[in-house]
Amino acid sequence: MRLLILTICASAWAASPVSIEQRFAQLKKNPPELYQFLLRMPKGGDLHNHLSGAVYAESYIAAAAEDGLCADMNALKIVVCAPGLIDAQRVAKDNTLRNTLIDALSMRNFVPGRESGHDHFFATFGKFGPIKEEHRGEFLAEVVRRAADQNESYLEVMAINGRAADALAAQIGEMKDYDAAKDALLRAGLDKVVEAMRARVAEMDRGRVRALGCDTKPDTPACRVVVRYLYEVIRESPLKEIFAEVLAGCMLTATDPLVVGINFVAPEDGLVSMRDYHEQMRMVGYAKHLYPKAHVSLHAGELAPGLIPPEGLRFHIREAVELGHAERIGHGVDILYETGAAQLLETMRDRHIMVEINLSSNDLILGVRGKDHPLPSYRKAGVPVALATDDEGVSRGHLTLEYVRAALDYGLTYAELKKMARNSLEYSFLPEDEKARAKAELERRFAEFEKLDKPRQ
What we know:
By secondary structure, this protein is of the alpha/beta class. The chain has 21 helices and eleven strands. The protein is about 50% helix and about 10% strand.
């Protein structure tokens, strides 16, 4: 009888289903298997993705060779050819030269010394400037293919900046009157500048479609990724140029369905950014009032103690929210150093202001990782969060690795990661009808994934 009871109990135990959460907990003990699981997991969207930083260095070197450019192996950058420089075609074929340039154009093999991770990271963006704009379509295709490989279904890519509006800034008199400054820009032809930007975006997107072959094979995984663009304001510009760029960006995103929002880029701790931050946020708020359909996501709080004086850590996120009317915050690393941090977290929760969490770049740029990162604090406060890549080419990563890091460093469960994936679409800047379709597609993918990845009994 005892043997019979033991046999029945053993059979019942063997038949008990292992939940996906139980399996996920086991996978955390084996990171390579966890990676494989998370690679297949549907991830929704990547909402914080700079095109220039998402492209891998190998692609820049290949494009430079195609364009007939050279490499300055002293300055370690791609340049227009001149005597004494090395042809990029030679660099592309020479393993030693190629590896040296890849390290300079990314964080690969970086060892902090006289140059910090922060400085090396941001310096990479000035090292591939002469590459022709015609490559942007193929660069986008690279990023989209990688997204499809991660089972992503949506991308918001920061890929168009407002430099074209800078020339009109000279028409602005004193910046004391925003209405007068706006009128001066419109008289100077800002509408035409925005129309030219719209044409650039359309051509860039057509280049993506051509490079992916979506005209003939629209059902490939990469062609099923929905791609939209964010407009970039260069925050280290003079205030008149910032105003022109912000106004042009809001005009563009309010009228071009491919451009769904604006953002600010360049180091937040830069001299001009720190000096003019308050006024920059006021400008965003003014333009948002004029163009309420223009969505706003802002890099704010990409700062850490020691990088700047402590006074500079106290207000950037708050002013992005209260003056700039940000609907999403990128990074938000210094939230707990803000004045009235608890109240600010409540405001972000109540207003449903999502934070784009960039774990790898926060580590590489700011040295903020593990228990020093505010991700647990945002989650505890009920502020919506989603994982993003920031500059996956520079950091030599991709979105799956961000999910792995979140699971291992912060003990997140499958359900919590799934919530983040859903957030990435819920807080996207897609129009509501397109958002509904994207969310339905994500749920379909989750159902398929969980069925095919059903834990063994």
